[in-house]
Amino acid sequence: MKRTLFFTLSVFLFFSACNKNENEREFTEWSIPVNEVRDGGPGKDGIPSIDNPDFIKMEEVSFLDDSDLVVVLKYDEQVKIYPHPILDWHEIVNDEISDRKFALNYCPLTGTALAWDREINGTTTTFGVSGKLYNNNLILYDRATDSYWSQIGLDCVNGELLGQRAKTFPIVEMNWVSCKLAFPEAEVMSTNTGFSRNYNNYPYGDYRTNNSFLLFPNNPSDNRLPSKQRVLGVLEEDANKVYSITNFSSPNIIYDKVGNANVIVIGSAADKFIVAFYDDGSLDNFVVNLDNLPVLGTDTNGNQLDINGEIVAGPLSGQQLSQPESFIGYWFSFGAFYPGIEIF
Questions:
Q1: Do residues 150 and 239 both lie within one domain?
Q2: Which of 10, 106, 299, 302 could connect to 314 by a Cys-Cys bridge, CB 3.0–4.6 Å?
Q3: What is the pLDDT of residue 327?
Q4: How many other β-carbons are positioned within 10 Å of the β-carbon of residue 64?
Q5: Where a domain ends, among 189, 209, 243?
Q6: How far apart are CA 92 and CA 105, in angstroms?
Q7: Would you state the pLDDT for residue 49?
């Protein structure tokens, strides 16, 4: 199986290497150990970002299986869907909704998806794939300054913006069958990307399920959970914690503290989602019920909370629960980037 994987990757890298940018600017100072920054193979822009995404209606989608994962981004009442089978091949989509310009970025090696603001210091930029990895995780670069950014680290690690923090926007990950129920009017990114890729073929073999297979060593390595177990990491200034998808074998709500912050975490293993919100005390005895997605359930006062944190019915209708910095990924990636991270 590994032989098949590396053959697939070799073919992929052959087609992508022609896009390598030979005019890379060099910055010598790194905030991460430069000897642990790996060359992923294809070079800068060898894995091409999608800068002009095409979208189709939900009913026009024929390339997704019900079990496929997708990323959902809602803003200004508009919902866009970014399928993993496309992100596996491109990793970054530079897009916008209304006045919000963002880079939807995904690392298939760590299973992590985030949405980053493309407005940096008053300048609108796009992000690209640098071709470099740190702890098996995507290093992006912004095309305005050519600075390198760590995806899971959420900051610039090399370049003139060194040390600057990425601004993120909330997203939701879930499987396709549940997404169709939750967001029937959404637009879905299509396979009309301008690139020739087999979007029905996952390019990394058994990587998603093989707990003993990483492309490069991690530092540190944390074996408290299976390496490819999907977890939600909640990151606070004074503490970090992960919640495993196995905590939600039945749809469930967890009331918890991460450092000094009160949070509620709601998830469903069947629907492949976990979301976290700050617990401001507005919901009273919330009961999870996923019969009417995107509604997650109702509290004793009739307040209905949806998967994006909006109270859509009840006395508090229209209120929005704020969300901590949080995203889903493979366990090994959180263990490497946030050593000693607490496990719920």
A1: no
A2: 302
A3: 98
A4: 23
A5: 189
A6: 4
A7: 98
pLDDT digits (tens, 9 = 90+) for 113-165: 999 999 999 999 999 999 999 999 999 999 999 999 999 999 999 999 999 99
In this prediction the pTM is 0.91
Residue 301 lies in a domain: yes
* Digit-coded pLDDT (tens) for 257-287: 999 999 999 999 999 999 999 999 999 999 9
Domain with 110 in it: 2-189
Amino acid of residue 245: I
Hey, what are 190's tokens?
């299509």
Provide CB contacts within 8 A for 99, sequence distance 6+.
none
Question: Which tokens hold the place of 262?
Answer: 């009160």
- At 94 the three-state DSSP class reads strand
Exposure of 195 by Cβ count < 10 A (0-12 exposed, 13-18 middle, 19+ buried)?
A: middle
Tell me which DSSP letter residue 50 carries.
Answer: B
Q: Any idea of the CA torsion for 141, 144, 145, 150, to the nearest 10 degrees?
A: -20
Task: Please count the structural domains in the chain.
Answer: 2
Residue 204 lies in a domain: no
Nearest-5° Cα angle at 304, 298 to 307: 105
Give the pLDDT of residue 41.
Answer: 85
CB within 8 Å of 27: residues ≥ 6 apart = 147, 148, 158, 159, 160, 162
Sheet strand arrangement including 325-330:
325-330, 230-235, 240-244, 342-343
Q: At 240, which amino acid appears?
A: N
Pair 50, 185 in one domain: yes
d(CA 270, CA 248): 8
CATH number at residue 297: 2.102.10
Could you give the CA distance from residue 310 to residue 319 in angstroms, rounded to a whole number? 6
Specify the pLDDT at position 149.
Answer: 98
* Domain contains 209: no
Q: Which residues of the chain have pLDDT under 50?
A: 1-24
